[in-house]
Design brief:
The complex is a heterodimer of chains A (about 170) and B (about 280). Chain A has helices at about 1-20, 40, 50-70, 75-90, 105-110, 110-135, 140-165. With about 170 residues, chain A is an all-alpha fold. Chain A is globular and about 45 Å long. Chain B has helices at about 1-10, 10-30, 35-40, 45-80, 85-90, 265-275; strands at about 105-115, 120-125, 140, 145-150, 155-165, 170-175, 180-185, 190-200, 210, 225-235, 240-245, 255-260. Chain B has a six-stranded antiparallel beta barrel. In chain B, β6 and β7 (about 180-185) form a beta hairpin. The chains are: A mainly alpha (about 170), B alpha+beta (about 280). At the A-B interface, α3 and α4 of A face α2 and α3 of B.
Chain lengths: ~170, ~280
């Protein structure tokens, strides 16, 4: 468990640094911004209790907001994602359930499985995020297109990150 | 009651979710201007209280810009102002003739980096070559002398602070015009030393020390500080004067860069003399 903690802290710091120092300055085509930090919430252990997941999600989002000066926006979206995650994992569960100690990553379940799981999670997160940002449903078309474009960008970056991470059954 | 607790326990995740989302949206509405306005437009109940807070904050944000504008205007006015000597000198010359006395141009700049705790302190300002700043120009602020431009890049310049043991500046007593050389002893960021004031000069605590105007860097009579303490060096017949700086180097945001307009002409002339 301690080992896990260290690894997760390390990957948390790495993902956050890449997000803040690189991706937040990218600004593709004016408003497409990949949100790599979602990856951290996706790869937390399957057995993690729901309340802990929600609290980790809350503080991850808050930290992002502090750097982006959007207090509350990413927090709301990450809490939503963390609330949704157990249900998502249930949808994609293997026939005889998850083995104890498994992580929802490419190394454990394969690339196809991971991308399906990640796509659904990222789209849900981004939908919530961008509708919160617009604060209403007045321009649903613009918000939806922004959601889809940003989701594609986020998924591309997440795919890259997973390809670069270790193939072994660790994080 | 037991049923209620069982209900809470069963849906504890959902309640935690609702609780955290409530906090998020509370933060969102309270700390983000755009969202607050939308919220106010749609509900309008919090109008008085929230708008009050909002304007308090936005006033503070515009303070910075207001400050900068004032500093720019100040610099402009100062460059319009003829010095007393020039005023006198203008009279014998007809209109359209260049006065013999010096004319200075002032450009405003913001300090983006500063230190007071080293031996060689430098400042960085946000104006550079593209704004006409060159090495060797003087830097002052509304409250007194700051330093001399050392290096320039396209958009920035570094300034040798008065609090740098490498910088020597020609200064004089405002009352009597006795001049000496000013340097920092690296002890306190509020004090510098004025040397070479002759022993027969009347020196009193509280007298003002200003720039002499002998160097081409600074105009005459820019305030440096006031005399706090002095002692006579018997062997050499000079005073060593401790000057309390009028400027607070720890709290320096806006400065002005001084350019002597005829500097190139003077430099060329001096070069001619050197070549002879």
């Amino acid at each position: 468990m301690i080992n896990y903690l260290g690894r997760y802290l390390l990957s948390f710091a790495a993902i956050l640094l890449i997000q803040i120092l690189v991706l937040n300055n990218l600004n593709l085509g004016g408003y497409v911004n990949p949100w790599l930090y979602v990856l951290f919430l996706l790869i937390l252990p399957v057995e993690m209790p729901g309340w802990l997941l929600l609290i980790i999600g809350f503080f991850t989002g808050l930290l992002m907001d502090l750097f982006l000066n959007t207090i509350g926006m990413h927090t709301a979206a990450t809490v939503f994602l963390c609330f949704l995650r157990p249900s998502l994992l249930r949808i994609f569960a293997p026939r005889d359930g998850y083995e104890p100690g498994s992580l929802p990553t490419r190394a454990h379940f394969g690339l196809a499985w991971f991308m399906k799981y990640a796509s659904l999670a990222v789209v849900a997160h981004h939908l919530f995020l961008f509708f919160t940002e617009a604060f209403g449903f007045s321009k649903p078309g613009a918000t939806l297109s922004k959601t889809l474009l940003s989701s594609a960008a986020t998924l591309a970056v997440i795919l890259l990150a997973q390809l670069f991470s270790s193939q072994q059954k660790r994080i | 009651m037991r049923n209620f607790i069982r209900f809470l326990l069963r849906y504890h995740l959902f309640f935690l979710f609702l609780f955290l989302e409530t906090i998020s949206f509370y933060l969102l509405v309270n700390y983000n201007h755009h969202h607050r306005q939308t919220f106010l437009n749609s509900s309008g109940r919090f109008a008085a209280g929230v708008l009050q807070i909002s304007s308090t904050f936005s006033d503070y944000f515009s303070l910075k810009r207001a400050n900068e504008e004032l500093s720019r205007e100040n610099a402009f006015l100062r460059s319009q102002l003829p010095s007393p000597e020039q005023f006198e000198a203008d009279r014998p010359f007809g209109p359209g003739q260049t006065p013999a006395t010096l004319n200075y141009l002032f450009r405003p700049a913001s300090v983006i980096n500063n230190s007071v705790n080293k031996h060689h302190n430098y400042l960085t300002i946000n104006r550079g070559e593209s704004h006409g700043i060159e090495a060797g120009m003087g830097v002052i602020s509304a409250r007194g002398l700051v330093g001399v431009v050392r290096h320039t890049s396209k958009g920035y310049a570094t300034v040798i602070s008065l609090l740098n043991t490498q910088l020597k500046i020609s200064a004089k007593l405002r009352e009597t015009n006795h001049f000496g050389s000013l340097e920092w002893d690296a002890r306190s960021y509020q004090h510098v030393l004025l040397n070479e004031i002759p022993a027969h000069a009347p020196v009193a605590v509280g007298d003002a020390v200003v720039t002499s105007g002998f160097s081409a860097i600074f105009p005459e009579n820019i305030l440096i500080g006031t005399i706090e303490d002095f002692e006579l060096n018997q062997g050499e017949g000079f005073y060593v004067i401790r000057v309390k700086l009028s400027i607070d180097f720890k709290n320096l945001t806006h400065v002005e860069v001084v350019e002597k307009i005829d500097r190139e002409e003077i430099n060329e002339l001096e070069k001619l003399t050197e070549n002879d």
